[in-house]
Amino acid sequence: MHIKLLNIFIFTGSPSQENIDATTAENDDPPAKKRRVLRSNFDRPSLPARSEHILPDVCILCQKVKTIVCKGSGKRNREKLVRCSTIEAANLKRAAEENENESLLMQIRNKDCVAIEVKYHNSSKSTIGYLPVIDVSPTEMDTVLTILKKSIDIADQLKLESLVIVMDQAIYSKAQLIRWRNPYFMKRLVIRLGAFHTAMSFLGCLGKRFRDAGLQDILIESEVVAVGSINGVFTGRHYNRAVRAHKLVAEAMQHMRLTTYLNSIPEEKAEKVKHLMTSLSQSFPGPQYEEILKGEHFQSFLSSYEEFIQVGNKKQTFAFWSSYIDIVEILLLFLRGIRESNWELHLASVRQMLPWVFAYDHVNYSRYLPVYWLEMSNLANTHPVIYTQCIGGDFAVQRSSNAFAKIPCDQTIEQTANRDSKTKVGMTGFSTNKRAVNRWIWSHHVRGSITHECETMAGKGERSGTRSDLLHSRMKHDKLAIGKIIDTVNSMFNPFEYEPAELIHIASGLVATQDVQNDLQFAKARGESEFENFCGQRLQTGEVDFFAPMKRMNLKTFSSMSKKSNHHQGYHFGSR
């Protein structure tokens, strides 16, 4: 908080009542007027000394404090410092090594960059521009061809050797078909699948596997998701709600599995594990956090816990809900790869998604997500310049100065161009005249740009400095929600304490049929096999045409047991 010292004065040196009486007794002169002094003249209380392990509160790159001028008010504010969010700070170290910056490497090499509070100015906010709208169906081949040609024109104007285009799956399929048949497009363009829509598709896989296994009952009864929103959560269309719901349930399930583990070991050993967890919580993000993770006690606990999970996976109910924790972890790693602009993590998490996409018949992503993964994995050979940019973290959009805040390109379109150019009721709300409608469409990008600039001038362009997940009120609310989920599951039964080997419905107690048990148990293995066959037969050897129809796996879930027969009884009406 900035204080204008020249304009703020306070009263100090007010004499006590005893001094006033003494002064009055000595002479009858009126007491001296109260003296006005600046706040800067005060002796401020000394602040606690910073730890010797923590770096000074300045940018580690420029070692300066910068100020920026607000466009709307003209005020000069101190530019925010972004605190490093990963222990290794891989991108920062890589940049320092490429530039041979030894002074920077001496400060961060072999150190926990979170614990020593590495900070830097984030001057690399993404610049977002709006292009004119093409008023035709985006999935028509002529439209896609126009987009590719316009993209190359933009690359030529910017004197770029190659250009990256991000599309959702429907347009990606058409664009790749054109690109594969044109060597010039293959050389100049790199087409990526939108990560936002990929995450939504993966959320649909999660919903298909676990919805009717009791997850829907858990979310509704614990009041985490309302009944009217439940379909959107399981299909992935309500993206933010879906991600939050799965995070909360996964954390609750992890808590219940860990509690079951602690109850299965001797009490003395359990107390040591609890003490270890307390030490981890208290040391984060201090210098001792990484030491505890690498220590002998934590590694011993980790191996013991993994052995407990392997033994528990022999029971199908235990294994089924453990797979839920694993799949949600894949989703969160995928989102983390985007937030941190970690290219290797992004590709690794996409690879982990593929078996589940195949297993649960997301046919369009089953066809094109392997193509995306293989092309991006080979990017260093085909487009080394683009690969260097992706490794450097330039494949996601930075809209704010916060760390861990990058978002996918296709999500950026939803938050900027589509949002800024909206009218209250759409084009039907003001005219049905064709010329007026054309003018409205052709000015789409201009209106969006004007809206964005007006928000910036009004001081509304900068996004909130604190993520909603990190607000104290939000963390308190999430903690209560996790407690409700645990209570709801315990009112049914704890899936990690269930001893019989068969798979049962967590809410109704219904035992799954053998077909359902087999399909749920071996879904990942069958999806992996289908993925390998697809890559081998369609992408490597060409034994099967790439565009040949793909057979659905139709794996059974708990919902298969509740489907009614389609046979109808016939009634005969007649006289007796």
Overview of the molecule:
- The protein has 576 residues and is mostly helical.
- Among the domains are: 113 residues, no CATH class; 248 residues, no CATH class.
- Helices cover 54% and strands 5% of the residues.
- It contains 26 helices and eight strands.
- The strands form four sheets. Strands 1-2 form a two-stranded antiparallel sheet. Strands 3-4 form a two-stranded antiparallel ribbon. It has a two-stranded antiparallel sheet with strand order 5-6.
Summarize the structure.
The protein has helices at 17-26, 90-98, 102-108, 141-157, 169-180, 183-188, 195-210, 215-221, 230-235, 239-264, 267-283, 288-294, 296-312, 316-339, 343-359, 363-377, 379-382, 384-391, 409-415, 417-420, 434-442, 444-457, 472-492, 514-521, 523-540, 558-562; strands at residues 9-11, 36-38, 67-69, 76-78, 81-83, 119-121, 163-167, 189-193. By secondary structure, it is mainly α.
